[in-house]
UniProtKB/TrEMBL annotation:
The keyword Lipid biosynthesis does not apply. The keyword NAD does not apply. Keywords: 2Fe-2S, Iron, Iron-sulfur, Metal-binding, Oxidoreductase. GO terms for molecular function: 2 iron, 2 sulfur cluster binding; metal ion binding; oxidoreductase activity. InterPro entries: Cholesterol_7-desaturase (IPR050584), Rieske_2Fe-2S (IPR017941), Rieske_2Fe-2S_sf (IPR036922). Residues 8-119 form the Rieske domain. This is Rieske (2Fe-2S) domain protein. Pfam families: Rieske (PF00355). It comes from the Bacteria.
Amino acid sequence: MFVKDLWYFGALSSELKPGQHLHRELLGQPVLFGRDHDGKAYALKDICPHRGILLSGGEAQNHDGETQVECPYHGWRFRTDGSCAAIPSLTADQAEAMDLTRIRVRRFPVHEDQGLIWIWYADEDQADTAPSIDPPKLDIPEGHKPKLVVHDIFNCHVDHAVIGLMDPAHIPYIHRQWWWRSAKSVHEKTKKFGPVERGFSMLPHVPSKNSYLYSLMGEPQTEIRFQLPGLRTEYVKAGGKHFTGFTAVTPTNENSTAITIVVYWDHWLPTIVPNPLIRKGIETFVGQDRDAVNAQQVGLAYDPKLMLIHDSDVQAKWYFALKRAWDKHRETGEPFKNPVRASELRWRS
């Protein structure tokens, strides 16, 4: 259903203050993201092993300098490594006789960088295995933090969200507005692609002349990278400055996908445009994609056979091929082989 043994986007650094936690659903499972009282991020399965209530409904308490999450139902407390610290209902002799080390909630490895909190998601039986690959890192200047964040929910499986966002042929029909593109601006395009780690890149190129906003940045170069599990980053660079849009396509469950767009920049153009205007543009753009894939679900409910054609759907084909290759790597232990090869694709958009 979902690819495992990969780093997923979990939360924004700004969403968690010391001593706070929040609930997320990720790959069909409840996850508690928290930050201990020393400022370190952590993640636990958001289920109390006693009676199944969400731990995120309780408090993150400081006990002698150690952060412990208290269950809101019976007060059981768990450390940030998942181990049980206390069961208040036990009498002294019961507590002495009971081995609390056998009681745990699942802990997920996390990594925090560039204003993003990443979570390593493996199968349950591999929960204690250390991550086998490094966390993602955006190619932006050190120390840069998010300038703008947009959230949305697509009511579809993650596969339809991913290939919907990478699909170039829908742009003249779904994203038709004066400040972006018009129906009359459709023309043939040729783009070069190449493999990157667990994904592919639309290699650096001069943006299409029918993209009005790009033209305002001077003479930019654009690169769009996609990596498993569902990470899309668009790098726009001009005059030594950058405008970087990172999109995390994260499955909440099999029928719902969270879209998080995080934007970084030091280019002068966004600096002079009010943030609410930039936000409105991004929300309009992603909202049009959301409405399209949500409408698509009506037809998909009839389980039709679907088609992927050349060249405009090749990126979607690569996505499914990458998933198959990653699953084979996990099942056999053989080195991962990227199925993407250097290519030149053409389409009208």
